[in-house]
Design a protein that fits this description.
2 domains; homodimer; alpha+beta; 51% helix
């Protein structure tokens, strides 16, 4: 693991061309000579440079960490070693998630730079959802992805010593964890210069939210759990902008927020962003499409996501439950033992459902009243329409956080989302 | 932190005399010359050599980690770097617990050896309890100790980055954590060659216990929490053999099992050992003393311990709650905010009570049917009497684990302990 970086060269198209030219296998896969390659910077995230390099025979994607938060500029410095943890996450989950992550061609620890598979014709799932497109496998694929990555990095699958080594490693990703702690669990619930919201339309709603003691306690308790409950290695930022899709393929990218934490944090990120999409749909309605069909499909996606996760997690546990937590060796006394163990596993997965609801609600709120917003709402040009969508999403998130007992099964969530 | 040790010299009285003679400040504090010192090996624990070195002007205690489990012999190897973690624990809590830990004069990382304050005329609390002696401050002191050590190493007191650094460091103490995982949460609940119990008297009870699915699920879930819930730096073995007392002083020793985990683990260790002492008292009755007064005093100690912990933890939180978990900065909106925050803090402390009950019950069980037993029972020579005491303690521990909702306050525990 590198020390917090001193100066290092930040790529532009020319310097990247020269550098890739020196990576023989990558150069060979692109074909011809570097001068023939087409290089574009396409990054639209908050933190990094992203280049597409195209040659006559192939193309790659290059991601380089900047030493500051791109969305804020050099005034908000950010150690680029997050690239190291992104790479470490990919390595840790690769044996368990198959082709759901991009293939990594090269990682350079001094340049904080990763050369990886270019996903094409994939687009960012969030973009597709905004455009009203549907991806029949996405929710199932991501649900199963979280099950695989979560289960196999947990104490249910392996000796605790292996998890502790991972916990110690990813404890170093503290700069990114700091962002999550501040921007998800703290700032949205108080006045902060980093916050913004659709104003003046939401001023009263936001003021009220920041005065809601029980809501803040519920959110803060999620934050406490995020810091203490090291169940498994998390992606850490699993929203619909971290998923790339075609109609037949689903890939998970951008795990630089990786850390050990509660599995419900990843589950909640995905569900939250489906719910944000649901609430944003009226803002994207046209005379030809009121988006009600898209909304109905999104609700089925939420159910599919949870059920796919749940079924796969329990199936993996049944087949590979050789870890130190709830050890199978304690339950080898016949049918009664087997039933007790299975009941305990089901109860644990139900606890993940509750966590998903709580973390998901926090993530919905932070995207509406915090620092980093989502294109689902930002692309609604009419501020009054946008504010109406956002206010309804906020109200739902508050309900999830303050009345958790109303939401014991995924059907409870679907029933409570106000129908258009 | 040293690598798992290769060979290193194991002290005897002569080699220790020579080594201490080279530590100028220690030599000076002992007085005269090494040849005049009296050196005795007094270790009676499971893991280490312990020497008392007495000179004409003073004395010190020397603890050296052996490369195997002393209680099992060289056939059970154990990396001596646990001495490093014991020292790291002392350093971490020293600023917060005052004189409740011994003063450390010298630590040698190559010899896995600590020279520390000799506590005199202190005796091991367990020994005093067996002898029917009472220590008016012990429970209060240890309760407040756990409050200080737990609070100040938690995310409630400090930026999470500091806790993560500690988590990464103590993740290395995996050999000792392995002992806890196996000997507290797993082996006692299944057949294992490392187990033993008073036989044949307890055979049927133990067989029944190992067939009790709900009991095993409850214990296994405590084990899962021990592995995942990194609330604070734990002592890790806070039984009555890790506390040295006089009638006016209380000291905590032997933190080599230190790791990050749930605070209730330490709380449960102390309460469990008070309960074991309570259940063992009839076995130490004499015609002159039926030990019923000692039992009544032990029950008040249990209450005092919890109430001292609870009051001090909340007081520290009110005065020093500057950490990232339940951050005070989210609750600066006046009285309603303050009330919501305080309610959340109280709720968290109540969750520690529930944890104390669960972890305590696991620790009671492991001391009766597992590998390492307690002198409270072992010193009862009559196996029938011992078995009766043990069976009643086991039954109570099972009740605690399988009916947690009956135990919501410390009074519920005291009421449920069968009166003699």
């Amino acid at each position: 693991m590198p020390d917090p970086a001193p100066a290092y060269p930040i790529f532009d198209a020319d310097s990247l061309r020269a550098w890739i030219g020196g990576l023989s296998p990558v150069r060979a896969s692109l074909g011809s000579t570097p001068g023939d390659w087409r290089i574009r910077e396409v990054g639209d995230g908050n933190l990094n440079l992203v280049f597409i390099v195209e040659g006559p025979q192939g193309s790659v994607c290059v991601k380089q960490a900047l030493p500051y938060v791109r969305a804020a500029g050099p005034s908000w410095p950010m150690a680029p070693r997050r690239a190291f943890f992104e790479n470490a996450y990919y390595k840790a989950v690769a044996p368990h998630v198959g082709a759901r992550i991009p293939r990594i061609h090269h990682y350079d620890d001094a340049l904080y730079c990763t050369v990886m598979e270019r996903l094409s014709p994939h687009i960012i799932l969030r973009q597709g959802l905004i455009e009203g497109r549907r991806y029949p496998d996405a929710a199932r694929d991501v649900g199963e992805y979280v099950a695989h990555a979560g289960f196999f990095t947990s104490d249910f699958a392996r000796p605790f010593e292996e998890k502790l080594a991972g916990v110690a490693l990813f404890a170093g990703n503290k700069d990114l964890i700091r962002i999550s702690v501040d921007l998800i669990f703290t700032d949205p619930f108080r006045e902060s210069v980093r916050n913004r919201h659709t104003s003046p339309q939401l001023d009263a709603v936001v003021r009220d939210l920041r005065r809601d003691g029980p809501l803040k306690v519920a959110a803060a308790d999620c934050g406490r759990r995020f810091l203490t409950d090291a169940q498994a290695l998390l992606h850490g930022d699993l929203h619909s902008g971290s998923v790339m899709v075609t109609e037949r393929d689903t890939r998970v990218i951008d795990p630089e927020f990786a850390c050990y934490g509660p599995i419900g944090f990843d589950l909640g990120a995905y569900v939250a962003n489906l719910l944000l999409s649901w609430y944003s749909q009226p803002g994207h309605a046209t005379p030809a499409d009121d988006r009600s069909a898209q909304q109905r499909w999104i609700l089925t996606e939420i159910e599919t996501f949870w059920e796919a996760f749940r079924a796969r997690f329990l199936a993996l546990w049944a087949a590979h439950g050789r870890g130190d937590a709830l050890p199978a060796a304690m339950f080898e006394g016949g049918e009664a033992d087997a039933a007790a163990l299975q009941a305990a596993r089901v109860a644990f997965v139900e606890s993940l459902f509750a966590d998903m609801i709580g973390f998901g609600a926090c993530k919905m709120i932070r995207r509406i009243v915090g620092f980093a917003h989502v294109a689902d709402f930002e692309r609604i040009a009419d501020a009054d329409i946008r504010a109406r969508c956002e206010a309804r999403a906020l109200a739902f998130a508050r309900l999830l956080l303050t009345h958790p007992r109303q939401f014991r099964a995924i059907g409870d969530v679907l029933d409570a989302v106000p129908r258009a």
